[in-house]
Amino acid sequence: MDTAFTTEQDEIRRTLRELLAKHCGPDDVRAATGTATGYDPALWALLSQRLGLPGLALPETYGGVGCGATELALAAEETGRVLAPSPLIATAVLAAPLITRLGTGAQRAALLPHLADGSLTATLAAAPLPTALALTGDNRTGEWAGGGRAGGVQARRDGHGWRLYGEVAQVLDGHGADLLLVAAHTGGHPRARTLLFLVRPDAPGLARVRLTALDETRPLARVELRDVTAQLLGADEDGADVPHALAATGAGAAAVLAAEAVGAADGVLARTVAYVRTREQFGRPIGSFQAVRHRLADLCVRVRAARSAAYYATWDPAAGGLALAQGLETLGAAAAEGIQLHGGLGITWEHEAHLYFKRATAAELLLGPVHRLRGHAADMAGVFA
């Protein structure tokens, strides 16, 4: 196994880092989060059309680049480094793989090329997200989406189509996505099964409410469905193994999200190192003090270890949950150290260190918690059997 990056992968990282350095500074990030979409459409067009990020892992048959999970993780690490608000995770990491796995030929041909070129954004409406993706528990019980009883989203046949009724909280980019993949239950208890449905944003009875989020760089929404007309993803409701597809998507997504967390941790670490080199106390830079050096050295080791885990998980998706746990934990430690070592400046809410602190806290709330990610990985490995 060759763990070195290829020339093409190094070029992806270099090009993306240069573009983000020009167009995604802290002021740009704050400005983008205040827009209706929650991201800068001009930057998204650059990332999509110039670099092809949404289609990195999609087959060339559908207009994608034909790369793999490693390249997508590279992109996520660089966008995470500057906390770039974009629909990349929701579109390319959650929605596109599910359409590829479950969609009919016609559905893939109609949707994937537009997802690949960034002209169409999509997201997965399933909560809680870690359980739906089988990262913190078994997603085959269906309890995370109602389990065939009251709650979650229920689906019923309406002639030759389907109608959905229910609510999904905390949908990533749910307020502005051009397409929703909604996980719903049908069949009634005890024969309930989970299916995925395509819902357009203009469907009658659909309401999307953007939530006030701790991390404004990752907008969340509440999706309400009141007898909304939907299209089944796939051709056969009885033959589709949706929980397995969600779990496979979750394993790949965990590796990419781990890389994104590592990028954010590395970003706040770099900013902290630059600050302690210039901030003086007792006539010398505080970075020259041994105690500060040791803290930053320990943090550097943690970031490198988390990066290794994230990229290993792109090769072995079974390690995705553990890599995500390590990435989230490392980001939390880096953000906390960043605030402390910035001193009085770091505790001001307006300082950029707090953008990373908010990302660390909100990411674990959305994707974790860390102990459940590790606990489920231990259960799957039979550690305590």
UniProtKB/TrEMBL annotation:
The keyword Flavoprotein applies. Pfam families: Acyl-CoA_dh_1, Acyl-CoA_dh_N. GO terms for molecular function: acyl-CoA dehydrogenase activity; flavin adenine dinucleotide binding. Residues 255-372 form the Acyl-CoA dehydrogenase/oxidase C-terminal domain. Keywords: FAD, Flavoprotein, Oxidoreductase. It comes from the Bacteria. Residues 6-118 form the Acyl-CoA dehydrogenase/oxidase N-terminal domain. InterPro entries: Acyl-CoA_Oxase/DH_mid-dom_sf, AcylCo_DH-like_C, AcylCo_DH/oxidase_C, AcylCoA_DH/ox_N, AcylCoA_DH/ox_N_sf, AcylCoA_DH/oxidase_NM_dom_sf. Its cofactor is FAD. PANTHER family: ACYL-COA DEHYDROGENASE, ACYL-COA DEHYDROGENASE FADE28. Belongs to the acyl-CoA dehydrogenase family. This is Acyl-CoA dehydrogenase. It comes from Streptomyces ficellus. The lineage of its organism: Bacteria, Bacillati, Actinomycetota, Actinomycetes, Kitasatosporales.
